[in-house]
Amino acid sequence: KLAANELEIRALQDQYKEIDAQAIKKFAQFPLSLKTQKALAEAKYVNPTPVQLESIGPALLGKDVLGAAVTGSGKTLAFLIPVLEHLFINKWSRTDGVGAIIISPTRELAYQIFETLKKIGKHHDFSAGLIIGGKNLKFERTRMDQCNILICTPGRLLQHMDENPLFNTSSMEILVLDEADRCLDMGFQKTLNSIIENFPPQRQTLLFSATQTNTVQDLARLNLVDPVYVGYGGQT
Ligand code: ADP
Ligand code: MG
Fold this sequence. Notes:
The chain has helices at 2-16, 34-42, 50-60, 75-89, 107-120, 137-144, 154-163, 180-185, 189-198, 215-218; strands at 65-68, 100-103, 128-131, 149-152, 174-177, 204-209, 228-230. By secondary structure, it is of the alpha/beta class. The protein has a single domain (2-230), classed as P-loop containing nucleotide triphosphate hydrolases (Rossmann fold), CATH 3.40.50.300. It has a seven-stranded parallel β-sheet with strand order 3-4-2-5-6-1-7, with helices on both faces. GO terms for molecular function: ATP binding; hydrolase activity; RNA binding; RNA helicase activity.
């Protein structure tokens, strides 16, 4: 079974360089793990939206992505699919700690991301947790170290970083910042810069917003490396 897994991983990685977003019409044409493909099909996600088409390829290749697309355009899958695939390709297991952190400005949005993750990640073995406050802090603390994917609001995440000596992000390999423009509108700039300071500098960053923003300048510590712009007509 391990060998089959290994073969699948190599076959997928071999195809990443050849992804041609222009030629893709269906998710099934993307080199995605069978576990992800199966869940996408079961959830009746068949045709990728434009932001998904353009973001998934570069994100699978490990590139930083800056995506701008209006509300309702499908940004959630544009980052959740690459997150799942990254952990799968790297044979992440429950004991490997936090591999991806997704930051969202509000509890409601974080919860929606969590629900979508449960749907498309259901055949994978990764653990995921919501760190959004409102619940018992102690409960969050004991759970979060066992989570491979954390979905957080900025204030609550920073609180854990400041107060929880057991919370360790050194294994983190992907950072997703969703609704980055809204995070800044809501006054989270300082909080986000403090959070980012705590992350390992070697990581992939996927940043999405509903409008084209200057988030990169505003979030000085993001350290994006040669990012791929999606939805920034002209800059691409
Ligand atoms: P955004 O974050 O850009 O506002 P969402 O990721 O919340 O958008 O997606 C908006 C809606 O579109 C959701 O109900 C989602 O299930 C649906 N959706 C996303 N991608 C697809 C797709 N490829 N095919 C069909 N529906 C999709
Ligand atoms: Mg969204």
